[in-house]
Amino acid sequence: MSQGQNSRRPEETMEGRRRKREKVIVRPDEDETPPDEVKPDDVKPVCKPVKVTGRGNGRRTHYGQFKYGGKRYKLEDSVLLNPEGNILNPYIAIIKDITKKQDGRMMILGQWFYRQEEAKKKGGGNWEINDPRELFYSFHRNEVPVESVMHKCVVNFVPDHKQFPKRRDNPGFIVQKVYDTVDKKLLNMTDKGYEDAQQHEIDVFVDKSMSRLGDLPDLEPKLFHFI
């Protein structure tokens, strides 16, 4: 899997829906709100800027955290995102960047997880899952307004030789596979072919998850029956 995958579009249905959401969720006109009125769900950056990039209208101020709806969010948080339209389930992403545009709008760059019904096979159909909580990780990223964020969520990266944690003890989503959005195939988290930065990213998520989950039992070996 190459770095070029990140900049290429996934299947049209997913990208179209996400673009539709971006158009629906807009910041109200400044003229509609008196200057001295502050809404409880206003988006506010937290702490000093991390850096500034771009020039002119493309200038961006980057932050490590923001506050929205009375809750604080930071880089690397996993969040549910508002699915506008006729989509039932929220989108799920990891916050990879937080920026403020010149017009005052704040955006997040999300790295997306795919649900089973969103992960299409190249020849048609969907990839199967082992548990309703299972998601597929991906290296696909795109930008959405901060107002899309609903709330944080927990995503556990579980090595493929380990059993899934019990729901009652460890609520949250589970990842064991990576979805290649270009070739529409599933990969193991330990497969060869990832760039060093991508493999490191996966390893960090696995380490954090296992630290949170503790020592999970190994999968029982499959028994082969011979005739």
TrEMBL record:
<dbReference type="InterPro" id="IPR001025">
    <property type="entry name" value="BAH_dom"/>
</dbReference>
<dbReference type="InterPro" id="IPR043151">
    <property type="entry name" value="BAH_sf"/>
</dbReference>
<dbReference type="GO" id="GO:0003682">
    <property type="term" value="F:chromatin binding"/>
</dbReference>
<feature type="domain" description="BAH">
    <location>
        <begin position="71"/>
        <end position="190"/>
    </location>
</feature>
<protein>
    <recommendedName>
        <fullName>BAH domain-containing protein</fullName>
    </recommendedName>
</protein>
<dbReference type="Pfam" id="PF01426">
    <property type="entry name" value="BAH"/>
</dbReference>
<feature type="region of interest" description="Disordered">
    <location>
        <begin position="1"/>
        <end position="58"/>
    </location>
</feature>
<feature type="compositionally biased region" description="Basic and acidic residues">
    <location>
        <begin position="36"/>
        <end position="45"/>
    </location>
</feature>
